[in-house]
Design goal:
By secondary structure, the protein is mainly alpha-helical. Helices cover 47% and strands 11% of the residues.
């Protein structure tokens, strides 16, 4: 077989689904592992539903998660003439025919099948029409002449050999009566043009594969190798759909999931290598193989995604983590101002504590990001006259302190608690509210040292507190 070539072929009719992303990832990894090529094909022949904004979202999503493709994207709608040419060739070699059945006739056949509780299969009425039987003034569809006798076997790398009775495959339409090609014809011809060696896709495509194999064989083309991946299910065991929450990459990026973490999670969703859980980019390419894909549907577990994300937050280089945070804030919150960057970078070691998402880190960093502290009316009760005096004393003491660290701050706090006969909470809580506007957040020593003396004095000098 020639150099390995795989493809990911989404339709731009909606946001890219997480199941599609996993399919793209498996194709990409297999190609990389085999030192082959990975192509992106945009299947945009559904003119009514295909939108440019969906195509843009697909490209953006693949870039976000780090899946690149070779060459330019292959646009299916530009190849329609090639698809039609093959349909005409199939008519010439006796493997396709013109069907003149009306929509009403087809609907009647479907009703009968439903009544009998059997699967609908076109009755092949027009399969062997004589010239005298051809109706006039009717634009026909073109149907593929499927095999009637015997069985077909799909040799699938993931599912094993799958056998089907040929009589169960209907004479499917390959050209509509307006001359436009259908999915099974277009996908088959495109795979041939693109020299695709391995078709790796969801197992809901198995019946399409049997149809496409027949087109390949009728044209005397070499069959690609097939691998059908089990679908992703919800935790309830239902098929994951675009209507489910957290089904698209946008859903994950909005809550602050790191692309590398999601990529690692999707790699392990239905695929395994020994008992390894965490993969570097190099390891994921080195170890990936189609044989490691399981046969059963995998369940999308949000808790596991968050756990994986937390691992990456804890173990990622802090410069890289800041870059992820900065991009997240700019896209979904607010751009981090230049004068705040250094403070946040220097504080990531504690800002990332217990954070499962970039949104958590953003919330922990808010007191640095803001320019002015806003107070809840309820929190003002913490600032009685005695507390205001303590805050003034604290401000005086740090004024002469060169560096604000836990080591320099602890004696100051201890002195104040002894002098005013209060406990740590009586000073820590008001200080936290005064400096951040919230009772919750990082430790008070971390807050003070991260803000710096100038900003701390400025916030403690707020007219509400004095």
């Amino acid at each position: 077989m020639s150099k390995v070539a795989t493809r990911f072929a989404p339709s731009p009719t909606g946001a890219l689904h997480v199941g599609g992303v996993r399919t793209a990832l498996f194709n990409w990894l297999f190609s990389k592992n085999q030192k082959g090529s990975f192509f992106l094909r945009i299947e945009d022949t559904d003119k009514e539903r295909s939108k440019s904004e969906h195509k843009i979202q697909i490209l953006k999503s693949l870039k976000w998660i780090g899946i690149d493709y070779d060459g330019d994207e292959y646009i299916q709608s530009t190849k329609i003439n090639d698809h039609i040419e093959v349909a005409n060739e199939l008519i010439k070699n006796g493997n396709a025919y013109k069907c003149y059945c009306s929509n009403e006739e087809i609907e009647e056949q479907k009703k009968r099948a439903k009544y009998k509780k059997i699967s609908y299969i076109y009755n092949r009425k027009c399969r062997n029409l004589n010239d005298s039987e051809i109706p006039k003034n009717i634009k026909p569809v073109i149907r593929f002449k499927s095999k009637i006798d015997g069985k077909s076997i799909l040799k699938d790398i993931v599912q094993g050999n799958i056998e089907i009775e040929n009589s169960t495959i209907e004479d499917f339409i390959i050209l509509r009566n307006d001359g436009s090609p259908t999915y099974n014809l277009s996908a088959t011809v495109d795979d041939r043009i693109m020299k695709i060696t391995h078709v790796i896709r969801g197992d809901d495509h198995k019946i399409n594969t049997f149809k496409q194999m027949q087109i390949y064989l009728s044209m005397n083309w070499e069959l690609p190798i097939y691998a059908h991946i089990p679908l992703i299910h919800t935790m309830d065991g239902k098929k994951l759909s675009k209507r489910d929450s957290a089904s698209t990459l946008d859903d994950y990026s909005k809550i602050g999931i790191i692309p590398q973490a999601l990529k690692n999670y999707l790699l392990r969703l239905g695929w395994s290598y020994q008992d390894k859980e965490i993969f570097t980019p190099e390891e994921s390419i080195k170890y990936f193989n189609l044989e490691g894909i399981g046969k059963s549907p995998a369940k999308l577990d949000m808790n596991r995604i968050l756990s994986m994300n937390e691992y990456y937050i804890k173990n990622m280089n802090e410069e890289e983590l800041y870059n992820n945070l900065s991009q997240y804030c700019e896209a979904f919150k607010e751009k981090i101002k230049f004068d705040k960057e250094k403070k946040i970078k220097n504080s990531l070691s504690f800002l990332k504590n217990k954070a499962k998402t970039l949104e958590d880190i953003y919330n922990n960093s808010k007191y640095i990001i803001i320019d002015e502290v806003n107070f809840n009316f309820e929190d003002l009760k913490f600032f009685d006259e005695n507390t205001k005096i303590i805050i003034k004393e604290f401000s005086k003491k740090i004024l002469s302190t060169t560096e604000l660290t836990k080591e320099t701050l602890e004696p100051i706090i201890k002195n104040l608690t002894d002098t005013f006969k209060i406990n740590f909470k009586n000073i820590g809580q008001p200080l936290r509210i005064a400096l951040t506007g919230s009772k919750y957040g990082p430790g008070i020593y971390d807050i003070i040292s991260s803000l710096g003396k100038e900003e701390v004095l400025k916030r403690l000098g707020n007219k509400i507190l004095v």
